[in-house]
Amino acid sequence: MIDIHMFACLQDNYGFLVHCSETGVTATVDTPEVAPIEAALEERGWTLTHILNTHHHFDHAGGNEELKARHGATIVGPSADADRIPGIDVALGDGDVYRLGAIETRVFDVPGHTRGHIAYYMADAGAAFVGDTIFALGCGRLFEGTPAQMWTSIQKLMGLPDDTRLYCAHEYTQSNARFAVTVDPDNADLTRRVVEIDALRSRGEPTVPTTLALEKATNPFLRPHSASLRSTLNMADSDDVAVFAETRSRKDNF
Ligand code: ZN
Ligand code: FE
User: Fold this and answer.
1) What's this model's pTM, rounded to 2 decimal places?
2) What is the reported pLDDT for 7?
3) Average pLDDT, the chain
4) Which tens digit of pLDDT belongs to each residue from 137-172?
């Protein structure tokens, strides 16, 4: 009933189409680049009806106006950032449930990368579109938020079922992996994963979607409680926010 189609956009963004076969409704999650979105619609024979924006950055909302003009799509986005989402029609915030055709879509406010970032969770598909909040082995840069905000946002997403597939908006995994092993060198799951990631990328294959379970086991930004991470950072007695903040700042300077 729910079809998800993923494809590359720009340098390292992913585009996503979500299609409800019961109603024919089709959404693009963000609008990084118009041409590949149009090509994907054409390839699938789907008609664009909705745009679901995660945040205002140009590589996520830059194609809004052109796609809306061409298809008359309804633009859904964060109420906390409505003034920065071009063409927004429906503004949503934490706890809202939006019906995308027959697909129940739950919204989480996940500020940190930007002040009005939201994530979309579709329980029936076991899928969450997390934008630039969680990446495979990484998290978004804190352009407009504090470490405490971002850690709260990440914890909200960590409350989803472990088998949830996380559709991250960028293919940053290999460079994230290079950093992750420096702060969590004794994590065997991480070491194993890095080998798999390198194999996937050498074949030109995506590392997205990932799963929440895999990120909980290997992503340092979801593991500020980890004893081995804390010992590398010399922060055995710090709180989770401080460990998260230190991890983020080391990544920024890596
Ligand atoms: Zn962004
Ligand atoms: Fe982005």
Assistant:
1) 0.98
2) 98
3) 98
4) 999 999 999 999 999 999 999 999 999 999 999 999
d(CA 241, CA 144): 17
CA of 207 relative to ligand 2 center, distance in Å:
16
The residues assigned a catalytic role are 55, 57, 59-60, 113, 132, 170
**Domains: count for the chain:** 2
> Could you tell me if 142 and 200 lie in one domain?
no
Please state the rounded mean pLDDT for residues 42-64. 98
Ligand 2: centre distance to CA 117 (Å): 11
Q: Which residue, 104, 137, 168, sits at the end of a domain?
A: 168
- Ligand 2 mean position to 177 CA, how many Å? 18
Q: What per-residue confidence (pLDDT) applies to 185?
A: 96
Q: Which long-range contacts (CB under 8 A, 24 or more apart) does 89-97 make?
A: 92/118, 93/118
**Crossing angle of helices 34-44 and 64-71, rounded to 10°:** 40
Instruction: Give the environment of ion ligand 1: residues with CB less than 5 A.
Output: 57, 132
CA of 63 to the centre of ligand 1 (A): 14
- Domain end point (choices 140, 168, 196): 168
- Ligand at minimal distance from the CA of 144 is 1
156 CA to centre of ligand 1 in angstroms: 19
Sheet holding 50-52, edge to edge: 2-9, 13-20, 26-29, 50-52, 74-78, 90-92
Alpha helices in the chain (DSSP H): 34-44, 58-61, 64-71, 147-158, 173-183, 188-202, 212-218, 227-233, 240-252
Q: Which ligand is nearest to the CA of 112?
A: 1
